UniProtKB/TrEMBL annotation:
<dbReference type="GO" id="GO:0051287">
    <property type="term" value="F:NAD binding"/>
</dbReference>
<dbReference type="InterPro" id="IPR006140">
    <property type="entry name" value="D-isomer_DH_NAD-bd"/>
</dbReference>
<dbReference type="InterPro" id="IPR006139">
    <property type="entry name" value="D-isomer_2_OHA_DH_cat_dom"/>
</dbReference>
<dbReference type="InterPro" id="IPR036291">
    <property type="entry name" value="NAD(P)-bd_dom_sf"/>
</dbReference>
<dbReference type="Pfam" id="PF02826">
    <property type="entry name" value="2-Hacid_dh_C"/>
</dbReference>
<dbReference type="InterPro" id="IPR029752">
    <property type="entry name" value="D-isomer_DH_CS1"/>
</dbReference>
<keyword id="KW-0520">NAD</keyword>
<dbReference type="InterPro" id="IPR058205">
    <property type="entry name" value="D-LDH-like"/>
</dbReference>
<protein>
    <submittedName>
        <fullName>D-lactate dehydrogenase</fullName>
    </submittedName>
</protein>
<dbReference type="Pfam" id="PF00389">
    <property type="entry name" value="2-Hacid_dh"/>
</dbReference>
<feature type="domain" description="D-isomer specific 2-hydroxyacid dehydrogenase catalytic">
    <location>
        <begin position="8"/>
        <end position="328"/>
    </location>
</feature>
<keyword id="KW-0560">Oxidoreductase</keyword>
<feature type="domain" description="D-isomer specific 2-hydroxyacid dehydrogenase NAD-binding">
    <location>
        <begin position="112"/>
        <end position="299"/>
    </location>
</feature>
<dbReference type="InterPro" id="IPR029753">
    <property type="entry name" value="D-isomer_DH_CS"/>
</dbReference>
<dbReference type="GO" id="GO:0016616">
    <property type="term" value="F:oxidoreductase activity, acting on the CH-OH group of donors, NAD or NADP as acceptor"/>
</dbReference>
<comment type="similarity">
    <text>Belongs to the D-isomer specific 2-hydroxyacid dehydrogenase family.</text>
</comment>
Length: 334
């Protein structure tokens, strides 16, 4: 029997990549544009498999409903899984899988793109030259060569990012709860968080969001950092306490902020709100700073990553259906 997968938060590119790579698998695909949450869960009918993304709300309440409807598999088409209540899923007998690694280079390269844009102000130069303004005033940058970069979290993405910044001639310090010997051999030095806060010119966040890391960038950690610090977050919005970072930007403690993720992003990102009045005052304030660059969770968005996301998601689901297991243990969350 053909198995149906119901997708939530579907964008046109999800549809085209999943349809393209379904030839080898032959699933029936059903696409909903809406986010999965308590209000939309009733759209699900006659399906044992749901496929969700970063901002779908898969809490205990939603999971209870999914179980009532006979859902057996929740397939995340992303790496982070902070939006899924794994304990509730386990209790309900629902297996949860994810795509643990899909082109970590895509995210690491985007983090570097943010650094280069904030530093060399190419976004401003682009607009300026189009208006025949060839002046350099206000575009002054700094050499990355020789600067100290602190990386928090050296998993797949942090490691790819470490190699990029080493290539730029930076001194690289890292903090992780477990060390990676490959990057140590390349010249990365593991340090305490405090040392990184104190010594880094640029800090890039690549650890997951959990109880230990939530709001790790806050008033106290910001106060330990160098003045004019550059902070880059391509991981999860909840790593940063937003009111605290706004204060630090106003005080010029933070000199540059690049965020691809935002704690309240589920109401904003992946949508065209150009005709709407945005009610979120924090994002409006952040976007008003000339030294803040916001991208809307696009770090993963490359052809290679979308290909891997589609094929790995289908493989995960096939493996769970045929033998209730997945070889890549990092893909199976419960
Ligand atoms: P990963 O699991 O390979 O690496 C995470 C690393 O963080 C691990 O080495 C882990 O030991 C470390 N870590 C865990 N707790 C920590 C702590 N308290 N302090 C410091 N380090 C800690 O994950 P990854 O593939 O490198 O992804 C990292 C994060 O990037 C994901 O959690 C996800 O939230 C985010 N992400 C964002 C995008 C995007 O498009 N912006 C895309 C993919 C992933």
């Amino acid at each position: 029997m053909t198995q149906k997968i119901s997708f939530f938060s579907t964008q046109s590119y999800d549809k085209s990549f999943f349809e393209k790579y379904n030839d080898n698998f032959g699933f029936e695909l059903e696409f909903f544009e809406v986010q999965l949450n308590f209000r939309t869960v009733d759209l699900i009918k006659n399906t044992a498999i749901v496929c969700v993304f970063v901002n779908d709300v898969v809490d205990a309440e939603v999971i209870e409903k999914l179980a009532e409807k006979g859902v057996k598999i929740i397939a995340l088409r992303c790496a982070g899984f902070n939006n899924v209540d794994l304990v509730a899923a386990k209790k309900s007998g629902i297996r949860v899988c994810r795509v643990p690694s899909y082109s970590p280079e895509a995210v690491a390269e985007h983090a570097m793109a943010m650094i280069l844009t904030l530093n060399r102000k190419t976004h401003k130069a682009y607009n300026r030259v189009r208006e025949q303004n060839f002046s350099l005033n206000g575009l002054l940058g700094f050499d990355l060569h020789g600067k100290t970069v602190g990386i928090i979290g050296t998993g797949n993405i942090g490691k790819a990012f470490a190699k990029i910044v080493l290539g730029f001639g930076c001194k690289v310090l890292a903090f992780d709860i477990s060390k990676d010997q490959e990057i140590e051999k390349l010249g990365v030095r593991y340090e305490t968080l405090e040392t990184i806060f104190k010594s880094a010119d640029i800090i890039s966040l690549h650890c997951p969001l959990n109880d230990k890391t939530k709001h790790m960038i806050n008033k106290s950690s910001l106060s330990q950092m160098k003045d004019n610090i550059m902070l880059i977050n391509t991981s999860r919005g909840g790593l940063i306490n937003t009111p605290d970072i706004i204060e630090a930007l106003k005080d010029a403690k933070v000199g540059y902020l690049g965020i691809d993720v935002y704690e309240q992003e589920e109401k904003l990102f992946f949508k065209d709100l150009s005709e709407d009045i945005i009610q979120d005052d924090d994002i409006q304030r952040l976007m008003s700073f000339p030294n803040v660059l916001v991208t809307a969770h696009q770090a993963f968005f490359t052809n290679e990553a979308l290909t891997q996301i589609a094929t790995t998601t289908f493989e995960n689901v096939s493996n769970l259906i045929t033998r209730n297991d997945i070889d890549n243990k990092a893909a199976l969350l419960n």
